[in-house]
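Limitations

Structures in this collection are predictions, not experimental determinations, and the ligand pose is part of the prediction. Treat each record accordingly. The example that follows, with nicotinamide-adenine-dinucleotide as the small molecule, is included so readers can see exactly what is and is not provided: the inputs are given verbatim, and the output is the predicted complex.
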Amino acid sequence: MNIAVIGTGYVGLVTGACFSEMGNHVACIDIDVKKVEKLRKGIMPIYEPGLEDLVKRNYQDGRLEFLTSLHEQSIEPDVYFIAVGTPSDEDGSADLQYVLAVAKEVGKYITKYSVVIDKSTVPVATADKVRQVIRAELKQRKLQIDFDVVSNPEFLKEGAAIDDCMRPDRVVVGTDSERARTLLKELYAPFTHNYERMIFMGIRDAEMTKYAANAMLATKISFMNEIANLCERTGADVENVRRGIGSDSRIGFSFIYPGCGYGGSCFPKDVKALIRLAEQYDFEPKVLYAVEARNELQKNILGQKILAKFGGDLSQIKIAVWGLSFKPGTDDMRESPAILFLEKVISRGATVKAYDPEAMSVAKRELPVSWFNEEKLVLTQHQEEVLKDADVLVLITEWKQFRNPDFTKIKASMRGNVIVDGRNQYDPAQLQALGFEYVGIGRRTTPLPYNKMTSIVQEEEVCIAE
Ligand SMILES: NC(=O)c1ccc[n+]([C@@H]2O[C@H](COP(=O)([O-])OP(=O)(O)OC[C@H]3O[C@@H](n4cnc5c(N)ncnc54)[C@H](O)[C@@H]3O)[C@@H](O)[C@H]2O)c1
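Predicted complex:
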């Protein structure tokens, strides 16, 4: 099949690479000229395990090409994937300007019956808007060409995106057209070969499914973070509680890890967008409000633990940070809890040395230049380098290489002895035996005297007010 994928970011590039691997001809299109030029030279714009090999092989074999406009395309596409961003608008709703701009382009260049597949995460009823825009363009061109608009939300996880695309749990397709359904079945056949993974439904059902999935996962995270906060205050250990509830098959172990809040390009914006969607229908989404509010507080938790330990003036404090990306396996720093943490401690005078296995160039590009110029933030080449003379080590992203470090070496290298474990990766008893002061999330050993807790509660109230 001939496929145009419009938007060559995390979703578009992975989708394009996987469909070309299955023998299709794919044009990945992006308005970012530099990105396209780099891709043509084999330079990946993102880090995603396995992506580079897949892209290079299919590009060299001629099944995958990179273009800056649909206009450049020589082969007529059978399907158009819309895979552009849908960031939060000022009021939190999904900004559809990029999706609708692509719809306009499709309307300009479509030449035969094709299926326009919306892979971007979009609010219910967006397919109707996409259809209207394409129709308006066709009217201007005085042409009558049949087309269908289908919702096919993407569920890939950054860090495991190739695997998710090649072996999806499910392929959700929202369509009201038998012709589109047949074409989508054919398109996805190589990925659903061993058993049927396609779930067909109405277009609005599919649009809502994506938001409901992300909101459910965000809810699990926020719920567990709430329990962790309660554990901290009552002397229970959330790690025991987690094991205790996860073993219930109705609950399960996934997405109940307490930590420093969810980040990334999807959960925060999608929860917000679902809230705004509900409000547009005069419906108060009480659970979603709470999920978002808990997360806003939780993203501040590591900074608060540092303030509780060292006081409000951090000008003499050296902080070592492991992990900057919003989760392991990606260089994506969008909405990473690391950003809020750095803002908080640097604004209080701390100096920070940080290391991340993949997100260093993104950090250099995205974080304030003044932090680097004034040496408030130094990025190091190796994870051990951040430790030298540090008062505290803060684990923010649980990359595998941080899981079992040599704590004796760490102790010798640091000036202080505090470890703030933002992902509950370490054994408090083991660290305490080695002479560390361990601070986790909701762990019984977290040494928070009552007066410090009071200041945290006050700070939480400030956050809620904001
Ligand atoms: N990143 C994820 O893990 C993930 C997972 C599932 C769903 N999604 C959803 O998929 C969509 C894309 O997300 P992403 O993370 O890949 O975004 P991204 O920001 O990484 O990539 C979007 C790309 O679209 C390009 N673009 C914008 N306007 C364009 C236009 N008119 N023509 C051509 N290209 C254009 C941008 O230059 C950019 O390269 C979003 O709606 C997101 O919510 C993302």
